[in-house]
Amino acid sequence: MKNWWKEAVVYQIYPRSFKDSNGDGIGDINGIIDKLDYVKELGIDIIWLSPVYKSPNDDNGYDISDYRSIMDEFGTIEDWERMLEQIHRRGMKLIMDLVVNHTSDEHKWFIESRSSKDSPKRDYYIWHDGKNGSEPNNWESYFSIPAWTYDEATKQYYLHLFTSKQPDLNWENPKVVDEVFDMMKWWLDKGIDGFRMDVINLIGKPEGLLDSVRFGERYDGYVFDPALYANNQKTHTYLKQMRKKVLSNYDVMTVGETPMVTPDIALEYVDVKNEELDMVFHFEHVESVGNAVPKGFFRIMLFVIGELWNMLLHGSRKFDVLKYKDLVNRWYTVIERGGWNSQYFSNHDQPRQVSKFGDVTTYHRRSAKMLATLIHTLPGTPYVYQGEEIGMTNIKLLSIDDYRDIATINAYKKAVEGGIPAAFAMMAVHSKSRDNARTPMQWNSEKYAGFSTGMPWLKVNPNYKKINAEKQANDPASILTYYKKIISLRKEIDTLVYGDFKIMDEKNRRSISYIRKYESKKLLVIINLTGKRAHAKIDKDIDLARAKVILTNIRKSSFAGDGHVILKPYEAAIIEL
Ligand code: NOJ
What does the pLDDT average to over 235-261? Predict the structure, then answer.
């Protein structure tokens, strides 16, 4: 079935780091308005805005203290309304971040909830007595600390799957569900076009909150084991209600952030028949093809060894090509079976894609364009994260004190406390920290990269004079120009949206090649995922000598007609057959 959100390209704005309009070093809504023409010129249809709600910023806005007002540093609700109007005026849409697995501990619900065991809001959150004088179970949160915090006032523990300032909401309480649904309607009635739903598959909690036995005891006794609570059947019930009572009354799109999903699990959320979500973000490619964010002593040690090994072998981390192709094939079955996919490598939680999967020294431009080719030609809706379109890279800050991300700081602390040498822990920080993606957007080569006139909240990447939007705007060979081209191609050729998908030359260890076919139109995409030359085999019935290359990331891709092609490092080509 055709849908506008299948044809669209989404651009994620992380407001804190996008554009500062008032010189306080923090991006804001007026800054976003100033840059809407830039986003439009890129060819974007939908903006996904990371949280702009009131928040004490323990986790940069993912800890919300008031769902219906705007964070002071970002502006006012009037600014936000003007932004929405300006987005719509340019023919774009806006989706907001919906963070309802947890609130801030400074949300009035939690303040009331923690005030007494008899508070009418007590059951808005998940409170438990301790077990043998400590936490109710051994869960570790996503941010390297125990998932329970003791509250002296009422002598019970509350659950938080993230920081202790992000208490989990209790979705089993119908009042919580009603509050969330009302809040969603409030934003939808303002005219927004959908939601990106933060860790939405964690909202349903298992009965009994039992200990994890999965990895055995760690040195500190806590176990990070999201399989225990991710994808609980209750979550499906809540999402079905949400669709029925709220979303179905509007023409909107939804994308759920869902850790711990395989294609089969994802399909339960996105199968049109199930009436839950339109698509999800899975993590298989960013976690298993590259490397997972390490947690715990042994995994960090393994990571460090792997990292050193990789550096010795290749100088940087590379694709596991066969694994990646298998994964792409498996995820295509979600679409074949009646769902839809998202395509992304980057967001505000991931290291910069060109640093992780490409090559920032010899083939910066070419490898950045190669990754763009994947995202925009694989089946699913493409998501571009701010700065990706100019090939922004990871940053190496020398001291842990320069990092701002709570997940990074906690993981570092835990690693060092657990006995990992600080220099090793810093290596993990450099390649994994979420701050890699959060350094200010590089607009031009002026001070602070044109992001702000004041000192930015997080350091600017020192490469901003080389990598910035202004420099790339009129350069026909730039990464930015390539993004514009590939995005407009996706608009012209619906084969890239609705075409079916078939991989060829499956066993090739360096390249991925696939056919997209829709009605009578056929495209071939050939991509060398590595920094070495690759030989790719093309099916016998394809006459490449006569085919037309419609986009390539090298000066000229040319192929002989004998079924064998030789690809330059990171070469990518889209060919009309
Ligand atoms: C996922 C978000 O993308 C991340 O930035 C945040 O820290 C957690 N969810 C908690 O809200």
Answer: 98
State in Å, rounded, how far the first CA of the chain is from the last one: 25
Of 55-59, 139-143, 312-316, the poorest mean pLDDT is in 312-316
Superfamily of domain 497-576: Golgi alpha-mannosidase II (2.60.40.1180)
> How much distance in Å is there from the Cα of 349 to the middle of ligand 1?
7
Distance set, CA 387 to CA 17, 346, 439 (Å)? 10, 10, 10
Token pair of 262 as six digits? 């395989």
CA-closest residue to ligand 1 atom 10: 62
Q: What is the tens place of the pLDDT at every residue in 162-175?
A: 999 999 999 999 99
The answer to whether residues 445 and 470 touch, using CB atoms and an 8 Å cutoff, is: yes
Q: Which atom of ligand 1 is nearest to the CA of 59?
A: 7
Given a cut of 90, is residue 334 above it in pLDDT?
yes
* Residue range 525-565, pLDDT digits in tens: 999 999 999 999 998 888 888 889 999 999 988 887 778 89
Amino acid (one-letter) located at 529 = L
Give 441's DSSP letter. P
Ligand 1 geometric centre to CA of 63 (Å): 9
Q: What is the mean pLDDT of the chain?
A: 93
What is the whole-number distance in angstroms between the Cα of residue 59 and the centre of ligand 1?
8
Domain boundaries, the chain: 497-576
Q: Is 99 in the pocket of ligand 1 (CB under 6 A)?
A: yes
Could you give phi then psi for residue 253, rounded to 5 degrees? Answer: -115, 155
| Cβ of 202 less than 6 Å from ligand 1 | no
Q: Which secondary structure element, helix H or strand E, spans residue 502, and what is its range?
A: strand 500-504
User: Helices (DSSP H) in 16-121: which residue ranges?
Assistant: 29-34, 36-42, 77-89, 108-115
The tokens for 68 are 């219906």
Positions marked active-site: 198, 257
Report whether residue 48 contacts ligand 1, using a CB cutoff of 6 Å: no
**Measured in angstroms, how far is the CA atom of residue 501 from the centroid of ligand 1?**
32
Pairing mode, if any, of strands 500-504 and 521-528? unpaired
Dihedral of CA atoms 300, 305, 311, 314 in degrees, nearest 10, equals -110
Q: What are the helix (H) ranges across 397-549?
A: 406-417, 422-432, 469-473, 479-492, 495-498
Question: Given ligand 1 and candidates 12, 349, 350, 432, which is best to mutate, with the most ligand atoms within 8 Å of its CB?
Answer: 349
pLDDT of residue 217: 53
Cβ(349) – ligand 1 distance below 6 Å? yes
Q: What average pLDDT does range 332-350 have in this prediction?
A: 98
Protein residue closest via CA to atom 6 of ligand 1: 62
Task: Verify whether ligand 1 is closer than 6 Å to residue 62 (CB atom).
Answer: yes
CA distance linking residue 302 with residue 329, whole number of Å: 29
